[in-house]
Here is the input.
Amino acid sequence: MDCIVTGGAGFIGSNLVDALIARGDRVAVIDNLQTGKLENLAAATAAGAQLHRLDVRDAVALDAVFASVRPQVVFHLAAQIDVRSSVEDPAADAQVNVLGALNVLSAALAYGARRVVNTSTGGGLYGDAALLPTPEEHPVRPLAPYGQSKYAAEGYFELYTRLHGLSTVSLRYGNVYGPRQDVHGEAGVVAIFCGCLIDAVTPRIFGDGRQTRDWVEVADVVQANLQAADSDVTGPLNIGWGEETSVLELVRELGRVGAEHGLSLPAPEFLPARAGEVSRSCLDVRRARAELGWEPRTRLGGGLEQILAGLL
Ligand code: NAD
Here is the structure.
């Protein structure tokens, strides 16, 4: 099958590209390398994946790639993912996350894609939800422009299904962690704390650490993408582990896994909570289970073990 993966040089996208290549698909990646890395695609490009270095805001360049690849399936993961920068510059966030998404969607329609799998966020969309685990029907109340832009994009994917009959689905991820997440980066507390463990650096917690997240391992997210591409489910689907874990529990679990490798995590330092972040987040994943037959497999402890094994 011919696939296009936007954002395919990034953390989640490159794990998806590897899985598509492994099952024998032909893969074209569209990425401007804003946060993505060539090294994430080293194995995939050696195995035949093509990287098109371009910006999803550039509709003309995007069209040219779609015209030559004519993908059956499109996975749209390219995004401005920095919540704090979305607060500082909501228009720049929307340029990529709304208009860029619309360009991808329009190209998918114009060049005859059979299925488009969009990437959204559960954690960023529901805000401080009244119901946990939070189902897809829960009111959407983002606390930052990032969540709002992702929600606006979802609306266009659903519109293209109604208006043009294009088959689309939007996967609302929990907090994804796993191999290739940058341990020295700004985003992804699991990766950052793994880096702290390896480097014996004090982990910094924003807030009191009792804030909860729904951490889901990247291999489970990749599997959800593959199953979503093969299904005809439409609308939003939560993709998470389905349980709340606090940042303090994460620190404890990481300390436990680290100790098995002779590493000790320094006691955390607590800093003021940051604007735009929800206090509790957990996704109800029953729809994905029922309609995709998808099941998350990797517990947090096992996922942390895998990350450390790759770093040591
Ligand atoms: P990432 O930053 O590693 O990946 C994003 C990719 O998009 C990068 O390779 C980047 O270079 C590319 N990109 C950014 N702007 C672009 C542009 N204008 N044109 C072309 N390419 C561009 O982040 P990730 O965590 O792998 O995120 C992938 C997707 O998953 C995003 O859509 C993100 O919103 C979504 N998501 C991630 C999480 C998470 O916990 N990591 C949670 C919910 C949703």
Summary: The chain has two domains: 2-176+216-242, 178-211+244-280+303-311.
